[in-house]
């Protein structure tokens, strides 16, 4: 896997009028773009189709979490869009996760089903508030094992937990890490952030980066710098 294929640029913007100029300005510096709830709600599937038609890959980050039949139907529809990756919540349980994996496997262009463990905005205190016993790491490992046993091809987790996930669950699956911030940039609303070098060293396969690229004066240069850091970290790993 090329270093630039390991970077996922998060298009966390209000609409296509903001997203498409960013995609064009980045050019060949990155290949994969995350379309999340905000952008998808504003523009619908047509933007996804347009990005894929232009040769980009799409990580559809809608975090499906519903009854198994509903999630399976949503995954089927996403697969028909030819997205490369999509997300479901591991906390939806094994039946829901298996339904998602089965629906994806039936597509001529099966996407990688990624299970979200614990959102990177959540801390130990937040988990206690919603009635989850144990700390963030305990919950990440619990949900990670559940998702892997259900057949999910990867996990979404902070790099702060990626090392333990690798230790507990081994290799052979993707770990997609949000909350990545190059050294010297603001953490924003993320409670658990790491640098690209730290994320790769911890075992992450893909890094999701938004604001450090979107808010850069030169988004292509910012993306290229992160890709170069990924390449150096991978070579040193």
Structural account:
This protein has eleven helices and eight strands. Helix 4 runs parallel beside helix 5, helix 7 packs across helix 8 and helix 9 packs parallel to helix 11. The radius of gyration is 17 Å and the shape is globular. The chain has helices at 16-26, 37-43, 45-53, 68-80, 94-105, 124-129, 136-149, 159-169, 196-202, 211-214, 219-236, and strands spanning 7-10, 32-36, 57-64, 85-89, 112-116, 154-156, 174-177, 206-209. Helices cover 47% and strands 16% of the residues. The protein is α/β, with parallel strands linked by helices and 237 residues long.
Question: Could you provide a short overview of the structure?
Answer:
With 237 residues, the chain is of the alpha/beta class. The protein has helices spanning 16-26, 37-43, 45-53, 68-80, 94-105, 124-129, 136-149, 159-169, 196-202, 211-214, 219-236, and strands at residues 7-10, 32-36, 57-64, 85-89, 112-116, 154-156, 174-177, 206-209. It has one domain (3-236): Alpha-Beta Barrel (TIM Barrel).
The biggest sheet, with number of strands, parallel, antiparallel or mixed sense and barrel status, is: 8 strands, parallel, barrel
How does the helix and strand content classify structurally? alpha/beta
What is the CA-based Rg, rounded?
17 Å
Order of strands, widest sheet = 1-2-3-4-5-6-7-8
Distance between the termini: 14 Å
The CATH superfamily is identified as: Aldolase class I
CATH topology: TIM Barrel
Overall average pLDDT = 93
Number of strands: 8
Provide the number of structural domains. 1
State the low-pLDDT regions, or none. Answer: none
Q: What count of helical segments does DSSP give? A: 11
Strand content: 15-25%
Helical proportion, percent range = 40-55%
Helix/strand order, N-terminal first:
EHEHHEHEHEHHEHEHEHH
Task: Report the principal-axis shape.
Answer: globular
CATH class: Alpha Beta
Which CATH architecture would you pick? Alpha-Beta Barrel
């Amino acid at each position: 896997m090329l270093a630039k294929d390991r970077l996922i640029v998060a298009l966390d913007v209000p609409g296509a009028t903001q997203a498409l100029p960013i995609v064009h300005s980045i050019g060949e510096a990155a290949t994969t773009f995350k379309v999340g709830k905000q952008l998808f709600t504003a523009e619908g599937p047509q933007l996804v189709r347009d990005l894929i038609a232009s040769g980009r890959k799409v990580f559809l980050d809608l975090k499906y979490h519903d009854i198994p039949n509903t999630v399976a139907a949503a995954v089927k529809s996403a697969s028909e869009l030819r997205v490369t990756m999509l997300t479901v919540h591991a906390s939806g349980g094994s039946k829901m996760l298996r339904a998602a994996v089965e629906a994806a496997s039936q597509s001529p262009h099966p996407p990688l089903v990624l299970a979200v463990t614990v959102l990177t905005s959540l801390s130990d205190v937040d988990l206690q508030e919603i009635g989850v016993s144990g700390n963030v790491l305990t919950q990440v490992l619990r949900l990670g094992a559940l998702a892997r046993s259900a057949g999910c091809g990867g996990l979404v987790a902070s790099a702060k937990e990626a090392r333990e996930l690798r230790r507990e669950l081994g290799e052979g699956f993707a770990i997609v890490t949000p909350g990545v911030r190059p050294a010297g940039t603001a953490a924003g609303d993320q409670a658990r952030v790491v640098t690209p070098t730290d994320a790769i060293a911890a075992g992450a396969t893909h890094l999701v980066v938004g604001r450090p690229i979107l808010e850069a004066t030169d988004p292509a240069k910012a993306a290229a710098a992160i890709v170069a850091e990924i390449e150096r970290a991978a070579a040193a790993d």
